[in-house]
Amino acid sequence: MSKTNLLDKYIQQNTLTPEIELLICCCRTYCDEKNSIKIKNLLQEKINWTYLIEIAGYHKVLPLLFINLSNYESQFIPTNIFKSLQNYHYLNTRRNLLIASKLINILNIFAEHKIPVIPFKGPVLASTAYGDISRRAFGDLDLLVHSENFIKTKQVLMSKGFEPYSDSSEREAAYLKSLNNQEQEAYLRSHWELHLVNRNEQVTLDVHQGVLSKKFSVPYSSQWIWEDTKLIPFIGKQILSFSPENLIIILCSQGGKDCWLWLNRICDLAEVLRAYSDVNWEKIWQLTIQLKMTRMLLLGLSIAHNVLDAELPEFILQKIEGNQLVKKLTAEIITQLISPVPAEATTSQLKSTLFHLKLIEHPLDKIAYCFEHLIVPTIADKSFIRLPKFLSFLYYFVRPIRMIFFNKNKN
User: Model-level pTM?
Assistant: First the structure.
């Protein structure tokens, strides 16, 4: 690829606001001399601090913004802004430590019931990739279990005070609670994740049996992940974790799922690439070929390289340079990221569907995605209208009608 990355071209063309350029410079745990000089020069410009804090909050990178700004002389930063960021950092660190302690308690429950589990993202990613639990904002705890333990996990956690909830609406949450045991098991077998909340402990869990929804038509089984795990230290405990190679693939796939709307997704990937500079890239490439996820991988790596200067091996850079679709999508995503008005966090279903279809590599998988996404009924459809069991086939008609109705209302 060109030595001048795409973001540098936007800077040369003066199409970036100083606030967005400053934020991107601060979205890393290590600032080299080039970025340090950039930050110092930008701080001497007229910065709209309210807007900077707003977009940093939107992109979920306030911890990195504070940590990097705290390295510069206080005269460049308004006192009230610095104190506000400092207070946020204190509260975020305290909350992160509390959530990490709750994760240890939850992992002890899994160990007690002999359920293998891999905690990912959240405090584990903050500790291993960012090097400090305070440098990353997170909320829910994400756990991966074997498919055969998915229902058992739900039962165990419910016995410990957790209950299912929907992260979409109260109506969907009420529907989930209304299901009998048989219906709940059928629901779990057809979904890749389950949301659980313990209101007394004030902790929410996303329990996964796969890292991507079946909608993506990539191998739904997570066996490839379980075959390549490692033990890592975490708060005085040895826990299961993804191999660095698998973690890179997973972060690229999840960023693609979310249409790369947020800078924190790019930060996660860039920090992992920095922390694990000795990964086996040939192994990564061969595995993504098997998983039919090469576009997802190349797009994520291209964005991390162009936005946050992530270092990549030459053969990966050549793969990116030779893939016109990946280059086009990279440019679109960077344009979206540097927009003065951030894109809607919940981008339209049509827009995200079209984006996902571009990432799916094989025509038959695109058809499967459309079927899963547009036709197969979801919890939202079933909570939208309650049908008796003998009329449940009508949900296949409710689904497209509800999607049209939802999009019309949204627009």
Answer: 0.89
